[in-house]
């Protein structure tokens, strides 16, 4: 049987749904990290900036991980001024300055896509925070530039998103985490130790 939120009979508002999806993603990542030789523990939203800590079972070295999970095409929601200096004038025209210096550019981000809410078909996208910054800025500026540096329907929203399309190159990028000798099962069931 395929496990989904909807066939579990869960009827909820979007806030509750999003919290549950986030919890599912964090626990799926923790379980996956266990198969790679890491102890991993989610923090249930209590720590700003990251969602779980992974500890190498041999060396006991640890590192934080930011986890994003979605059942939809969009995996990352943020504000563009988190990544780059951004100004909007009184006419709604956007302008951009320098990239912001990240406190933790090498922190791992793992995005989990649950197509139709099915955990059996979970897809994982693994990269660093600096990669997220680069992709978010490129996507946002390309979008705004196509519309003469203004939102097409007006307004001054700074919302920036990343979708499966932008993150595709990082799918099953476990080489950022897994020792080279470790075999990893990819989202489509293939085993690979050629990471």
UniProtKB/TrEMBL annotation:
It comes from the Bacteria. This is DUF4365 domain-containing protein. It comes from Pseudidiomarina sediminum.
């Amino acid at each position: 049987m395929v496990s989904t939120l909807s066939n579990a009979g869960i009827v909820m508002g979007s806030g509750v749904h999003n919290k549950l999806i986030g919890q599912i993603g964090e626990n799926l990542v923790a379980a996956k990290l266990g198969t790679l030789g890491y102890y991993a523990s989610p923090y249930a939203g209590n720590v700003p900036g990251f969602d779980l800590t992974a500890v190498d079972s041999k060396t006991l070295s640890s590192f934080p991980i930011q986890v994003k999970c979605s059942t939809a095409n969009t995996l990352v929601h943020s504000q563009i001024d988190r990544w780059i200096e951004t100004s909007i004038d009184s006419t709604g025209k956007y302008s951009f300055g320098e990239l912001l210096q990240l406190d933790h550019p090498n922190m791992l981000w793992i995005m989990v896509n649950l197509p139709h809410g099915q955990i059996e078909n979970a897809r994982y996208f693994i990269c660093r925070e600096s990669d997220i910054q680069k992709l978010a800025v490129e996507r946002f500026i390309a979008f705004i530039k196509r519309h003469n540096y203004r939102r097409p329907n007006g307004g001054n929203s700074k919302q920036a998103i990343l979708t499966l399309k932008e993150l595709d190159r990082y799918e099953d990028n476990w080489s950022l985490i897994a020792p080279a000798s470790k075999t990893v099962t990819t989202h489509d069931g293939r085993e690979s130790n050629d990471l």
